Amino acid sequence: MNSFDQVKEELRKKKNRWLVTGAAGFIGSHLAEFLLKQDQEVTGLDNFSTGKQENLNQVKNAVSNDQKKRFQFIEGDIQDLSLCQRACGGIDFILHQAALGSVPRSIENPIVSNGSNVTGFLNLLVAAKEAKVKRLVYASSSAVYGDHPALPKTEDVIGKPLSPYAVTKVVNEHYAGVFASLYGMELIGLRYFNVFGARQDPNGAYAAVIPLWISSMIRNETVYINGTGETSRDFCYIDNVVQVNILSATATNGEAVNQVYNVAVNEQTSLTELYGLLRERLIPHYPHLQKAAPVYRDFRTGDVLHSLADISKAEKLLGFRPSFKIGEGLDYSLTWYIKSVKG
Q1: For the segment 39-66, what is each residue's pLDDT rounded down to a tens digit?
Q2: For residue 218, is it within any domain?
Q3: Residue 17 domain-assigned?
């Protein structure tokens, strides 16, 4: 039995109270669903700036009637300190996913990104400290590696941020370090690499590459690749992200706490390769893709050229074992997108 299986068994034996911020979002809704399926008490918090009620509906449809009763939802913004204080009352663990993602969004409006990602995070830290929450796990990002060229990325070496979004995540990590040392809080940061899976929004100006391309392919629209197509990413399926969040929250090894970890699979995929993986899986459902080809255009400002994670730290200290590589993750994801995206 691996570490994650053991944790699931232990969770079912003991009821804890969890706060999931960004619970109506892509990652947050998957975390809420997992916890409810382990019979945990879950409070979700979201302001619906990017989250969707449909995601919460899907969570409720995936759990039993008894488990539904263990979920309560608070609509509101983490930039409201009093709301954060109310949400943290009586909570054992926090999984903090609420943020405004997207490098382009932050470049277009850095003030809005800073308000959610920095002010909101600080509010939550203060509220968690006051409520004596046992541990807070928060979403950082691979964007913190910035212009540092070394591959694979290791947690102890970062470069200069290339976007306001990256700056906000660096600030989050610094605030976490200060709160841990000053107030004795238990905090763990997770540097997400390119996460994908069901419920990731394919629409809008800031859609992530995988849902955007899937949607475009299904709808017979042009797929644009920024740059030569050699740009590469370490794509990480959502179930791997759920696993590492739960392992982080429940880790009993003292060395594992007040750390940051890469969350990925240590596997590099170029954008041209990604296009091929998606196309071959979608052709049986959408024959028009037989003649499809991507259009290459200028590289996007603020992006990094290559991204690959060293995950040995999370493997050693948390017992993290990614269950899904990109191919398996795409297979599961496409089942959802084929049902959800209108052609």
Answers
A1: 999 999 999 999 999 999 999 999 999 9
A2: no
A3: yes
Q: Which domain holds residue 81?
A: 3-196+235-266+308-323
Q: How confident is the model at residue 206 (pLDDT cuts 50, 70, 90)?
A: confident
Structure tokens at 260: 């940051």
In a domain, 166, yes or no: yes
Of 56, 45, 47, the closest CA to residue 20 belongs to 45
Model pTM?
A: 0.96
- In the chain, the N- to C-terminal Cα span, in Å, equals 43
CATH number of domain containing 151: 3.40.50.720
Contact 165, 113 (CB under 8 A): yes
Tokens of 157: 């070496």
Tell me how many domains the chain contains: 1
Confidence class for position 1, pLDDT limits 50, 70, 90? low
Neighbours of 277 (CB within 10 A): 17
Residues 231 and 246: their CA atoms lie apart, in Å, by 31
Within a domain: residue 135?
A: yes
Among 138, 145, 165, 192, the active-site one is: 165
Q: How many helices (H) and strands (E) does the chain have?
A: 14, 13
User: Phi and psi dihedrals of 71, rounded to 5?
Assistant: -110, 130
**Mean pLDDT computed over every residue of the chain:** 95
Active site residue 192: no
